[in-house]
Write a structure and sequence with these properties.
- The complex is a heterodimer of chains A (329) and B (193).
- Chain A contains 8 helices and 19 strands.
- Chain A has 329 residues and is an alpha+beta fold.
- Chain A has 4 domains: 49 residues, no CATH class; 51 residues, no CATH class; 139 residues, Jelly Rolls; 74 residues, 3-Layer(bab) Sandwich (Phage tail protein beta-alpha-beta fold), CATH 3.55.50.
- A 7-stranded mixed β-sheet of chain A has the order 1-4-5-7-8-11-12, with no helix packed on it. In chain A, strands 2-3-6-9-10-13-14 form a 7-stranded antiparallel β-sheet.
- Chain B has 2 domains: 116 residues, Rna Polymerase Sigma Factor, Chain: A (Orthogonal Bundle), CATH 1.10.1740; 71 residues, Orthogonal Bundle (Arc Repressor Mutant, subunit A), CATH 1.10.10.
- Chain B is built from 10 helices and no strands.
- Chain B is globular, with a radius of gyration of 21 Å.
- The mean pLDDT of chain B is 80.
- Classes of the chains: A alpha+beta (329), B mainly alpha (193).
- Chains A and B meet through helix 1, helix 2, helix 3, helix 4 and strand 19 of A and helix 1, helix 2, helix 4, helix 5 and helix 6 of B.
């Protein structure tokens, strides 16, 4: 029985084997039954140590969301049966009738016509409503609003996530409806996320006051700036947390402003914006702060470069791995 | 009234399913990655969980779910591997090695599966690495987890390659003492340098 050369083992683990090395590895494996389990156990352990350092809760949560998206899709595929055509025919007839009726409704009453705006999967879209309210729609989100608001109230509907800056008008409440709740405001800034990890809807308040009614519940809740309300759609349970509300709505900003922020704070903001992890070297001075505005670039590299111009720090990047360190004088 | 209770049942089985998912996802992903590699592993695991979802009413025990999950991942992975040998012209020797590897990871092989399920082992590796002194840990993680070359690490940390080597040597010495059953792993790792 021969022993496997260390060089071959190492190259095999790092996936760098030459053709000749692969050939001798194969010969070694065929020498005895034991060899296979020896080699693959080493390989397994090698990867096990690495793997579990990289598994975080966020990754699992994302996978869970994707899984339920796939489950929903596989449900809708089921309808591709001959029966489906029959239902489709009926649906088309109903649709035609409705649009015929709808056509007349549209022309007789302008308030009925709703406008629907959606942001694509990759862009944030800014919408200006008839009353001057600004809405930023996050990726793949949709807002429906009437061409003209009625005198009593301003009704809109949201699917996805949006940041609202509502024009003040005490006589005409602004109302946002989602699947699970209805929000009523007079004039405020808030971030509303209706699809946070499938089962939850979240609302965080930056300014003013909002009133929230659950759609299946008659009670009303009022929150104040700096608070976030989380509604579990399954259990109808409501939680209120203290948050840095600006962080929640950060995604809509084109300019990132920092006010005497230290490196921890800056990194936290960048991590959130680009959905990445940044490693900070222990030699970075934590008391050093930065104030000012920075453009938010599409690429993290451009933003990091801009940051390195403004502070005595440097960054290195290798794939997903980003490392910030201070320049030694 | 009856409708309400069936709704409750549905929620209950869904939340049970979600718990199972969170618990087994990391193991399942690791298992699939070992078989088909990074690029296809997430898809394989997702498809396997969809199968579990479809059967969630028949499933009685968690032990059964786990076994079913690993078996499904294994079957799907073999299909992918078979497809690959047809489409990609692998060297014959590499194919032979991959066949033996797939054999090692079959769900009946307790040696392979036990290691994956051994949560204590995972935690211990993590804890041991975290016990290393600051700089030493940084260097070790860059080298082992991120597979960076010593020269690259030296450039980033602004230290000499020699210092990098010293840190890795120290880290390995400590870890070997701390995790003796992992000697194999660390022994092979030191060859990296």
């Amino acid at each position: 029985m021969s022993k496997l050369k260390n060089k071959i083992l190492k190259d095999y683990l790092l996936n760098k084997c030459s053709t000749r090395e692969i050939e001798s590895l194969r010969q070694w494996l065929e020498e005895s039954e034991d060899h296979a389990s020896q080699l693959f156990k080493i390989e397994e352990l090698y990867h096990l140590g690495k793997f579990h350092m990289n598994q975080d809760a966020e990754h699992i949560e994302k996978a869970e969301q994707n899984l339920f998206k796939a489950i929903d899709n596989s449900k809708s595929i089921k309808f591709k049966s001959p029966h489906f055509l029959r239902y489709a025919a009926v649906a088309i007839i109903i649709l035609c009738t409705c649009s015929y009726v709808g056509y007349f409704a549209y022309h007789t009453n302008k308030a009925f016509s709703m406008i629907e705006v959606s942001a694509t999967a990759k862009s944030v879209k800014r919408v200006l409503l008839p009353d001057g309210t600004n809405v930023w729609l996050n990726h793949s989100s949709t807002l429906r609003y009437p061409q003209k608001f009625t005198k009593e109230k301003r009704d809109v509907e949201l699917k996805g996530e949006a940041y609202f800056e509502v024009t003040k008008n005490p006589h005409q409440p602004f109302i946002v409806k989602s699947d699970a709740m209805t929000i009523e405001v007079l004039g405020t800034k808030f971030n509303f996320n209706t699809k946070h990890s499938n089962n939850y809807e979240e609302l965080s308040l930056l300014e003013g006051v909002v009133q929230i009614h659950g759609n299946n519940d008659k009670s009303t809740i009022t929150i104040i700036p700096g608070q976030k309300i989380i509604l579990n759609k399954q259990t109808q349970q409501i939680t209120i947390q203290r948050v840095d509300a600006r962080m929640e709505s950060l995604w809509h900003e084109n300019m990132i402003s920092f006010k005497r922020s230290n490196i921890q704070k800056i990194v936290a903001i960048l991590e959130r914006l680009y959905n990445i992890h940044i490693n900070i070297d222990s030699n970075i001075n934590q008391r050093m702060t930065y104030s000012g505005e920075m453009r938010r670039y599409e690429q993290i590299d451009s933003t990091l470069k801009a940051l390195c111009y403004s502070m005595p720090i440097c960054y290195k990047r290798k794939g997903e791995y980003i490392y910030l360190y201070q320049i030694n004088k | 009234m009856q409708e309400e209770s069936s709704m409750n049942d549905r929620f209950q089985s869904e939340s049970k399913f979600r718990n199972v998912f969170r618990k087994y996802y990391p193991q399942a992903l690791f298992y699939a990655t070992r078989l088909v590699g990074n690029s296809d592993a997430e898809d394989v695991v997702q498809d396997a969980f969809i199968e579990v979802w479809k059967r969630k009413k028949e499933i009685v025990s968690e032990e059964y779910i786990r076994a079913f999950l690993f078996r499904t991942i294994y079957t799907y992975s073999l299909n992918i591997l078979k497809h690959r040998t047809i489409t990609q012209n692998y060297a014959e020797s590499m194919q032979a090695i991959n066949i033996k590897k797939a054999e090692y990871y079959r769900p009946e092989n307790n040696d392979a599966i036990k290691l994956i399920e051994n949560i204590e082992l995972h935690n211990e590796i993590k804890i041991a690495i975290n016990e290393l002194p600051n700089k030493c840990r940084q260097v070790f993680i860059m080298s082992y987890i991120h597979e960076m070359k010593n020269k690259e690490i030296a450039d980033i940390l602004n230290i000499s390659v020699k210092t990098v080597e010293v840190h890795i040597y120290k880290a390995l010495k400590y870890l070997r003492k701390r995790l003796d059953y992992l000697i194999l792993l660390l022994f092979t790792f030191i060859l990296n340098q």
